[in-house]
C-alpha cells in the first residue's frame, strides 16, 4: 500500500540529473547518520536493542541494515569514478571506510553478499581498460576485508557448514536449516495450491497445518513467532500461486525494460545497480513489502523518470 501511495508522486515529479543525484546524496547522508549511531553503539552506548546483531544504528534488523549499508557502499564506490554524489574525496573515503566497518561488524550476511556480488559490476561499468582485471581485484579486496573481520568470517563459515549439512543430511535445526524448511514449505504450498496459492498472509497458518499433517518436521516452540516466508519469491508463489509467479516476473521484466531505456549512462547504471540490489536481495527476505526498503526502491523508480533531455549545464 505504501508503494501505491508514494510511487505516483515520484513518477509525477519532474526529475532531472541534478535532482536525482541530490536524492542519492540525501540517502547517503541519512545512512551516515545511522553510521554515527552505530559507532556510538560500538562504544557501549545502547541506542536500541539490537539483540546482539552488532552496531546496526537505528535499523534494528541485520538484513535491512546490511542491505542499506551495502547500497551506500556501492554508490560511494561508483562515485569514486563519477565524483558528483559526494564531491570531496576525503569525505567520500571516510564515509566508505565507516560503512565498510559497519557492514562487516554486524550479522548482515545479506548486505555483505550483495556488496561482494555487485562491487565488481560497479568497477566493470566504470573501467575502460583492463576491465576484467579490476573485478577480480575488487573481489580479493572485499575477501581480505571479510577475513580481517573475525565476526564476519565466523558467520560465513557457520553458514557454509549448515548448508553443507543440509545437502548431505537434509533438514536440521539451524538458521540455514529453518530457511530451507520455510522454502520447502513454500514449494509444497505452491504444488498443492498452484493457481492462486494459499492466500495472502496464510503462509504461517498453512505451515503449521503441514506440521500437523506430518509433511514437514516440527520446529521448536520459541521459533513459532518467526514462522513466515523468508524470501519475497517464496511469499509470492506460496501465497499467490501462479498469479504470484507471473506478477513478479512481470515486475522484473518491466523494471529492467524501463531501466535500459534511460539515455543517461550514469543514471542508467545507478538504476541497474538498484535493480540488481533489490531483486537479488529479495531472495533473503520479503523486502518487497518492507517499509525500510521503500526509500531506495523509490530512488530506483526515480531513475526511470529522469528527463533525458535535461541539460546538466543549466
Automatic annotation (TrEMBL):
Membrane in keyword set: yes
Transmembrane segments: 20-39, 59-78, 85-104, 110-127, 132-153, 233-254, 266-283, 289-310
Subcellular location per the Swiss-Prot or TrEMBL entry: Membrane
GO cellular component, one term: membrane
Stretches assigned to coiled coil: none
Protein keywords: Membrane, Transmembrane, Transmembrane helix
Pfam families according to UniProt: Wzy_C
Membrane topology field: Multi-pass membrane protein
Broad class of the protein's primary localization: membrane
Ranges for domain O-antigen ligase-related: 96-248
InterPro entries: O-antigen_ligase-rel_domated, WaaL-like
Membrane as UniProt keyword: yes
PANTHER family referenced in this protein's UniProt entry, alphabetically: LIPOPOLYSACCHARIDE BIOSYNTHESIS PROTEIN PA4999-RELATED, TEICHURONIC ACID BIOSYNTHESIS PROTEIN TUAE
Protein name per the record: O-antigen ligase-related domain-containing protein
Amino acid at each position: 500500500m505504501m508503494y501505491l501511495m508514494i510511487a505516483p508522486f515520484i513518477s509525477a515529479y519532474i526529475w532531472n540529473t541534478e535532482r536525482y543525484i541530490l536524492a542519492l546524496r540525501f540517502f547517503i547522508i541519512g545512512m551516515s547518520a545511522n553510521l554515527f549511531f552505530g559507532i556510538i553503539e560500538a562504544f557501549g552506548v545502547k541506542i536500541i536493542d539490537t539483540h546482539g546483531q552488532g552496531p546496526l544504528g537505528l535499523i534494528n534488523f541485520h538484513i535491512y541494515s546490511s542491505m542499506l549499508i551495502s547500497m551506500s557502499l556501492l554508490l560511494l564506490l561508483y562515485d569514486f569514478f563519477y565524483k558528483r554524489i559526494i564531491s570531496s574525496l576525503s569525505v567520500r573515503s571516510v564515509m566508505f571506510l565507516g560503512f565498510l566497518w559497519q557492514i562487516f561488524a554486524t550479522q548482515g550476511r545479506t548486505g555483505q553478499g550483495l556488496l561482494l556480488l555487485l562491487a565488481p559490476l560497479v568497477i566493470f561499468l566504470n573501467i575502460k581498460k583492463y576491465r576484467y582485471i579490476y573485478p577480480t581485484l575488487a573481489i580479493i579486496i572485499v575477501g581480505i576485508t571479510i577475513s580481517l573481520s573475525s565476526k564476519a568470517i565466523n558467520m560465513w563459515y557457520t553458514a557454509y557448514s549448515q548448508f553443507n549439512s543440509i545437502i548431505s543430511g537434509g533438514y536440521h535445526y539451524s538458521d540455514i536449516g529453518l530457511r530451507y524448511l520455510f522454502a520447502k514449505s513454500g514449494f509444497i504450498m505452491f504444488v498443492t495450491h498452484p493457481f492462486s496459492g494459499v492466500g495472502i498472509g496464510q503462509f504461517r497458518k498453512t505451515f503449521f497445518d503441514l506440521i500437523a499433517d506430518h509433511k514437514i518436521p516440527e520446529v521448536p516452540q520459541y521459533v513459532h513467532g518467526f514462522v513466515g516466508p523468508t524470501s519475497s519469491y517464496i511469499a509470492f508463489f506460496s501465497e499467490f500461486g501462479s498469479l504470484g509467479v507471473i506478477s513478479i516476473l512481470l515486475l522484473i521484466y518491466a523494471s529492467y525494460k524501463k531501466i535500459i531505456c534511460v539515455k543517461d549512462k550514469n543514471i542508467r547504471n545507478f538504476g541497474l545497480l538498484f535493480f540488481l540490489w533489490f531483486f537479488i536481495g529479495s531472495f533473503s527476505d520479503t523486502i518487497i513489502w518492507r517499509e525500510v526498503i521503500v526509500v531506495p526502491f523509490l530512488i530506483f523508480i526515480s531513475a526511470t523518470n529522469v528527463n533525458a533531455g535535461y541539460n546538466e549545464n543549466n
